[in-house]
Design goal:
This protein is mainly α and about 220 residues long. About 70% of the residues lie in helices and about 5% in strands. The chain has a domain of about 70 residues.
C-alpha cells in the first residue's frame, strides 16, 4: 500500500498511552474479580500471589486512572456530543447492519458513549477505592461509608468491564480499527467511510504541507 493512501490515526505516544491503560485494566479487572468471587480466587495470581495482588491492585488502578486522564485531556474535545451524533443514534438499526450514517467526526456516538462511560466509571472507582484502601486511607473513614464505597466500587468495576467489552467488540467488528491502534494508521478509504468529517479535516491540513514540498 502506498504511503499516501495511509492516514495517521494515532501517534506512537498515543498508542503507548492506550496500551498502558489496556494492560492495567486487564490486571486490575482480573485481580478484582478474584477478590469479589471466591470461585475466581485463582485470578489473583495474575499479579503474582493473592497477597501480592491485594497490595498491587490499587496501585495498578491508580496508574490506569492517571494514564486514562492523559487520554481524557487529549480527546475530550473530540468526544463532545453534536447534531450528527443524534442522527447516528436515531439510525442505530442501520449501524447494526454495518452501514455508516451521518457526517461523523473523529469519533462516532457509540465511541463517545464508551469514552464518557469509562471516565465516569474510573472516577467512581478512584473515589471509592481510596475509601476502602487499607492500610493507607480506610482507617480515616467510618465503617458505613466503607461499606457504601465497597458497593460503589463493585458496581463501577462491573460497569467498566461491560464498557470495555463493548469497546473491544466494536474494535474487532469494524475492520481496520485494530490496525489503527497497533500500527497507528488507517487507509483513506476507511477514513472516508467511517469518519468522513475527520477525513476532510485531516486532508485539509495535509494540503498546505504537500504544497510546500512542491518545487
Amino acid at each position: 500500500m502506498k504511503k499516501r493512501e495511509r492516514i495517521v490515526r494515532y501517534s506512537a505516544p498515543e498508542r503507548i498511552n492506550h496500551w498502558i491503560v489496556a494492560f492495567c485494566f486487564v490486571f486490575a479487572a482480573l485481580s478484582g474479580l478474584g477478590f469479589f468471587f471466591p470461585s475466581f480466587n485463582w485470578l489473583m495470581n495474575v499479579l503474582g500471589t493473592p497477597q501480592l495482588a491485594r497490595i498491587l491492585h490499587p496501585f495498578v488502578g491508580v496508574i490506569m486512572f492517571a494514564a486514562f486522564l492523559i487520554m481524557f485531556f487529549r480527546y475530550w474535545k473530540h468526544n463532545l456530543i453534536d447534531r450528527e451524533d443524534i442522527i447516528w443514534a436515531k439510525n442505530i438499526h442501520k449501524i447494526a447492519q454495518n452501514e455508516e450514517v451521518g457526517d461523523t467526526g473523529r469519533y462516532n456516538f457509540g465511541q463517545k458513549c464508551v469514552f464518557w462511560a469509562a471516565i465516569f466509571s474510573l472516577l467512581l472507582l478512584l473515589a471509592s477505592g481510596i475509601v476502602i484502601w487499607r492500610p493507607w486511607f480506610a482507617g480515616a473513614f467510618p465503617i458505613p461509608l466503607i461499606r457504601l464505597a465497597l458497593m460503589a466500587h463493585s458496581f463501577a468495576a462491573v460497569g467498566l468491564i461491560i464498557v470495555i467489552m463493548i469497546h473491544i467488540y466494536a474494535a474487532l467488528w469494524v475492520k481496520g480499527t485494530i490496525t489503527a491502534m497497533v500500527e497507528g494508521w488507517v487507509t483513506s478509504a476507511w477514513a472516508k467511510k467511517h469518519h468522513p468529517r475527520w477525513y476532510r479535516a485531516v486532508a485539509q491540513q495535509s494540503r498546505p504541507k504537500q504544497q510546500e514540498k512542491r518545487p
